[in-house]
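Dig into my protein:

:::
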Amino acid sequence: MKIFKKILLFLFLFIVLVTIILDLYGYSLYSKAIDKEPLVSKIDEIQSDENYVKFEDLPEDYLNAVVSVEDRRFYDHGAIDFISIARAIYVNVTNFDLREGGSTITQQLAKNIYFIEMDPFPRKLAEIFMAFAIEDNYSKDEILELYVNTSYFGDGYYGIKEACNGYLSKEPSEMDLNECTMMAGIPNAPSVYAPTKNPDLTKSRQGHVLETMVENGYISQEEANKIINNN
C-alpha cells in the first residue's frame, strides 16, 4: 500500500512538473510574439486593411454558421473551453479519428495573427496565453469579426471579403443562407473544402455546417433540407 501511495505521489509530482514546464514554454513563446509586435498594434493593422469587413456588415446567418460549426459555446466561455476540449477528446477517441478540435474561435484567431507558421504542439501552448490576452482586450463580437477577416479560405483568399469576391463575385453582406453556410465551412481545411478543389467535399462540409445550425437552434431542419436538396 505504501509503495502504491508513493507511485501515485510520484506521478502527481511528475504531472505538476511537466505542466509547469509546458506553461513556462508556452508563455515564453507568447511573450516573444508580443514583444515583436504588441497585440493592439497588430489588431489596428488588421482592421485598417481595405478588405476588412465590420461585424455589422456581415450577415447574421454567416456569423451564426461560423459560431455553430467552429465554437458553439463561443459566447458562453472564456479564452479556452474545457467542455469543448473534453467533448473533442471523447468524439475523437470513440471514432478512432480526429473528427473534432477543442480550440475556441479566440485560440484560432491567435493562431491566425501570430502563430500560423509554428508547429502544432508549441503553437497550442502559445495560443492559450494569447487567447487570454485577446479576450482581456476585445469583445466577443470584435473577436468573431477579427476571426472571419483573418481566416484563410483557399485559392489565395484571406478574409471573408476576398473569399466572397473570389468565389461568389459578391460582397459578404449579399450572401444568402446557402452561401453563408458554404463559406463558413471552408476555413476548417481550405485545401479540401474550397469550392474550386472538390465540389462534393464542399457540399459535404456545408451539410455538416447546416446540421450544427439545426442542432444549435439557428435554423430549422426544413431550411437545412431545402438547401441540401437544391445543391
